[in-house]
Automatic annotation (TrEMBL), chain A:
The keyword Metal-binding applies. Residues 73-304 form the LUD domain. The keyword Iron applies. Residues 320-389 form the 4Fe-4S ferredoxin-type domain. One of its GO terms (molecular function) is 4 iron, 4 sulfur cluster binding. It holds the Pfam family LutB_C. SUPFAM superfamilies: 4Fe-4S ferredoxins, NagB/RpiA/CoA transferase-like. InterPro entries: 4Fe4S_Fe-S-bd, FTHF_cligase-like_sf, Helical_ferredxn, LUD_dom, LutB/LldF, LutB_C, NagB/RpiA_transferase-like. It comes from Streptomyces roseus. Residues 398-489 form the Lactate utilization protein B C-terminal domain. Keywords: 4Fe-4S, Electron transport, Iron, Iron-sulfur, Metal-binding, Repeat, Transport. GO terms for biological process: lactate metabolic process. This is (4Fe-4S) protein.
Automatic annotation (TrEMBL), chain B:
This is Fe-S oxidoreductase. InterPro entries: Cys_rich_dom. It comes from the Bacteria. It comes from Streptomyces roseus. Residues 4-83, 138-223 form the Cysteine-rich domain. GO terms for molecular function: oxidoreductase activity. Pfam families: CCG. One of its GO terms (cellular component) is cytosol.
Length: 494, 251
């Protein structure tokens, strides 16, 4: 399992495999369509959905605009409540901090709440390198971890697996990590869940260190909020002696009241539930400062930047930081449905991944330079996003960055990056097309040429044109252009 | 009433019959049609692929070509959406990047006058029954830029339902993208064709003879897949169906 996905091929190549895998296609289609339809019904129940959406957007924008102030306020509140706040500029620093904190406890096992931030930084690998075993406790994450796999969905990381595959993974792997799967395990969801429950219960009762992320952090009170559906997260958040939360700095909201909006929009958008099943909130060590033995006696908050401040500097791209990771955009995305989550080469797949990864990681690698093009700009993601992130707008903006280069902020410094490799021919073609289209005389001549090519009736094109003709016939060329018809018919020069 | 036809570059070069259908349809409804010869492409391929600067001269050309026309009608939801949603942004950015307020002003002046064909028919002319005749079973694919970009809603279906002899059958998952996506079709051909194959499969499943749309670029992609697979369903632009009458049926 790799958290960083380095050396991924570009999106089109990675997607090709998924497109040709009929089992994966069927799993994804079934899963995304089911969640998609349920979400639509859950959202339609709220008469004020559009206002909630606008409010969520406004709150997040406000929080981001004054991020510096809110983070300091948060730090003060968490510290006052007995927690310790650490600041991590990048993945390495965050991993170092967390590893150091775990080693200092003397324990070598941690239980984890599902967290995107820790996957983003590759924390499990860093812990493993330090001799610490990290156990994922979210059911789907457990499936991914036991299967030596990578997550392919934000909310349902094992969406690419079906029941039979999960049974096989449990049977083969559970025993190597702890309590083995029961003899003769079937693929009934209840049986699978029970096997996971027994396997995990042992870990919860034994672990002294828990690691989590958070969905929200309230600046005013220092309260951390985790949304989950299984209760396994709550086990990790309450049973261990030490709790370490790694959270992206963009997760801060100014006031406790702001949660009202997201308590409504997040569950409906992600699981299509009216109310989230397990919402855990904690403020530092609580009023007793951990002395009552209820909950952890040490709490560490690691605030993670890892490209977020640089992203915040970009006027168009910064709206991606509003994301509350509901995954609604994945579930409606026709490209995600065919390409699968792995093709996006990041823990953030789908439309949000296509705009987030090239900002957090830059557009230097093949996969990151190809992600802005992994969309038809159909707009389905924007339509469902509960914080109204205009993903198509960011995609076009990032395409511009990839194709033309331009200003970006790297490590707080404004620099101009050069175009990504492989766009020279395209740039020339786009320019040539524009020159042709901007000169009516040349355009008419071009159209006449095209009309003459009609007799050739090509079925396959060479070079880049093959990308069209490999799967499609070419349009049948007309005898004359509209312009020519008009001139003939109306006697006007056109 | 007079309107200027913004035929779009794709229709001009590849689908003149769609432009001709718009002319016949509008004239039949009593609208005089002009074809400003200076028009060309809206600049969408450049803009959407990341070459915004290359789309600026085309914005200027389009705005200048249609200057003074109270109604600019286009049989392409995608190009109408380009003008309506992206021209103002291109103008704003050009100004911010120090190229003056000219493009922004041109965009602002053009945007309210541009109408996608079904908007013009339903909202401006106030007709849904255009007197068309087309005795076939038809299913309709609402392209994304029409559906979500312009919010065309049921306008195309209302027009189709009023066509004499036409049996409109619902396309399953109609709102889902067909997979064309401009340069996406060649940059991500596998996903593009997979999406198009699902879309055409749904169309074939309806039993319709015709898969109708209001964007010929999407239809070119879908038609290419249908023909490669040897399917009998044919694709037709909405304008061609609406132009067809009992006296002059579409052949
Ligand atoms: S971008 Fe919007 S829809 Fe997608 S995961 Fe984030 S909040 Fe949800």
């Amino acid at each position: 399992m790799s958290g960083t996905f380095m050396g991924m091929p570009a999106f089109p190549d990675a997607a090709r495999e998924a497109v040709r895998d009929p089992v994966l296609r069927a799993n994804l289609r079934h899963a995304t369509h089911t969640i998609r339809d349920k979400r639509a019904r859950a959202v339609a129940e709220l008469a004020d959905w559009e206002r909630l959406r606008a409010a969520g957007k406004a709150v997040k924008d406000h929080a981001l605009r004054h991020l510096d102030r809110h983070l300091v306020q948060l730090e003060e509140a968490v510290t006052a409540a007995g927690g310790t706040v650490h600041w991590a500029a990048d993945a390495d620093e965050a991993n170092r901090i967390v590893t150091g904190l775990v080693l200092a406890t003397g324990h070598r096992e941690v239980v984890k709440v599902k967290s995107m931030a820790t996957q983003e930084i590759g924390l499990n690998e860093a812990l493993e390198a330090a001799g610490i075993a990290a156990y994922e406790t979210d059911l789907a994450e457990l499936i991914v971890q036991l299967g030596h796999d990578r997550p392919s969905h934000i909310l349902v990381p094992a969406i690419h697996r079906n029941r039979a595959e999960i049974r096989d993974v449990f049977t083969a792997e559970m025993g190597r990590w702890g309590r083995p799967a029961p003899e003769g395990l079937g693929d009934d969801p209840r049986e699978l869940a029970e096997a996971a429950r027994l396997h995990l219960r042992e870990k919860f009762l034994r672990a002294k260190v828990g690691i989590s992320g958070a969905n929200f952090m309230v600046a005013e009170t220092g309260t951390m909020v985790v949304f989950e559906s299984e209760g396994n997260g709550r086990m990790c958040l309450t049973l261990p002696e030490t709790l370490i939360s790694v959270v992206g700095i963009e997760k801060v909201v100014p006031t406790f009241r702001d949660l009202e909006i997201f308590l409504q929009t997040l569950p409906r958008s992600s699981t299509a539930e009216r109310m989230n099943p397990y919402t855990t909130m904690w403020t530092g060590l609580g009023p007793s400062r951990g002395a009552d033995g209820d909950g952890p006696s040490a709490f560490h908050l690691v605030l993670l930047d890892n490209g977020r401040t640089d992203t915040l500097a970009d006027e168009v791209g910064r709206q991606a930081l509003r994301c509350i990771r509901c995954s609604a955009c994945l579930n409606v995305c026709p490209v995600y449905e065919r390409a699968g989550g792995h093709a996006y080469g990041s823990v953030y797949p789908g439309p949000i991944g296509a705009v987030l990864s090239p900002q957090l990681r830059g557009t230097g690698s093949a996969i990151d330079a190809s992600l802005p093009y992994a969309s038809t700009l159909c707009g389905a993601c924007y339509e469902v996003c509960p914080v109204a992130i205009d993903i198509p707008e960011i995609l076009v903006h990032l395409r511009e960055r990839v194709a033309q280069g331009g200003p970006v902020t790297l490590g707080g410094v404004r620099v101009r990056i050069r175009p990504a490799r492989g766009h020279t021919a395209e740039r020339a073609a786009m320019r040539a097309a524009r020159l042709l289209l901007d000169r009516p005389g040349a355009l008419r001549a071009g159209e006449r040429l095209l009309a003459r090519a009609r007799r050739l009736r090509p079925r396959r094109l060479p070079g880049p044109g093959r990308a069209w003709t490999d799967g499609r016939e070419l349009p049948q060329l007309p005898a004359e252009s509209f312009r020519t018809w008009w001139a003939r018919e109306r006697g006007e020069r056109a | 009433m007079r309107a200027a036809l913004f035929v779009t570059c794709v229709n001009d070069a590849l689908y003149p019959r769609t432009g001709i259908a718009v002319v016949r349809l509008l004239e039949r409804l009593g609208v005089g049609v002009d074809f400003p010869a200076a028009q060309s492409c809206c600049g969408q391929p450049q803009y959407n692929t990341g070459y915004r600067r290359e789309s600026e001269p085309l914005l200027r050309r389009t705005a200048e070509a249609f200057a003074g026309y109270p109604y600019v009608v286009t049989p392409s939801g995608s190009c109408a959406a380009m003008v309506r949603t992206h021209y103002p942004r291109i103008g704003r950015l050009a100004e911010r990047e120090g190229r003056g307020p000219g493009l922004a002003a041109l965009a602002e002046e053009l945007v309210p006058r541009v109408f996608e064909l079904t908007e013009f028919l339903v909202d401006v002319l106030g007709v849904t029954d255009v007197g068309a005749y087309f005795p076939h079973t038809v299913t309709y694919h609402p392209s994304c830029h029409g559906l979500r970009g312009l919010g065309l809603g049921e306008r195309p279906q209302r027009l189709l339902r009023a066509v004499k002899g036409l049996d409109l059958v619902e396309l399953p998952d109609a709102g889902e993208c067909c997979g064309f996506g401009g340069t996406f079709a060649v940059k991500n051909p596998d996903v593009s064709v997979a999406m198009g194959t699902d879309k055409t499969g749904n169309a074939v499943g309806t039993g319709a003879d015709v898969l109708c749309g209001a964007d010929n670029s999407c239809l070119a992609h879908l038609d290419g897949i249908l023909r490669r697979r040897g399917e009998a369903v044919r694709t037709l632009h909405l304008a061609e169906i609406l132009a067809s009458t009992e006296e002059e049926p579409l052949t």
